[in-house]
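RETRY 2/3 - previous attempt timed out on the joint model. Re-submitting the same 204-residue input unchanged.
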Amino acid sequence: MVVEHVDIAVTPGREEEFEAAFVRGREVLAEAEGFRWARLLRQIEAPSSFLVLIGWDTLEAHTVGFRESELFGQWRAVVGPFFAVPPTVVHYAGELTPAGDA
Amino acid sequence: MVVEHVDIAVTPGREEEFEAAFVRGREVLAEAEGFRWARLLRQIEAPSSFLVLIGWDTLEAHTVGFRESELFGQWRAVVGPFFAVPPTVVHYAGELTPAGDA
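RETRY 2/3 succeeded.
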């Protein structure tokens, strides 16, 4: 399993709108081949900063399958308007399946 | 629940030693009051970079209870020798309990 790690700086004052948009964005992600789960976490020290963690079957399920599909545009259309700057994305190898997810 | 997020740059060439040390370090963490779970992830783009995620009951369980206990010194003694630079720590609010952990 691969974990996509996305650091998102949200425009200050729009945090609650972003959280609501993420619920819709997650439904888009869930349509992607190789998607396993997604979680949204809000930073305590800097509450306009969020961390999105997404579990994928493989690295390519994200970097090729998802990013080259029309789902990527849908995801960005839903959550992108709340980004203060382009997000930083890296990937990690390791086991992190959250409880309640397959 | 609070998730401690630790970015760790390991001295290149010592990654496997660090991974072995983390197994022992995790046992130290698990003795702390308010500890719930810990996971180690290795970055794909930069394989000397690791992410440690630790679930705590509260922020203070980590920042006060753990850091002011002798367990903190034990943890750093086990894993610290492999750090290339001091790690970066932030905390997130949100649900991320991994499968298999209470």
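The first strand of chain B starts at residue 2 and ends at 9. Closing ticket.
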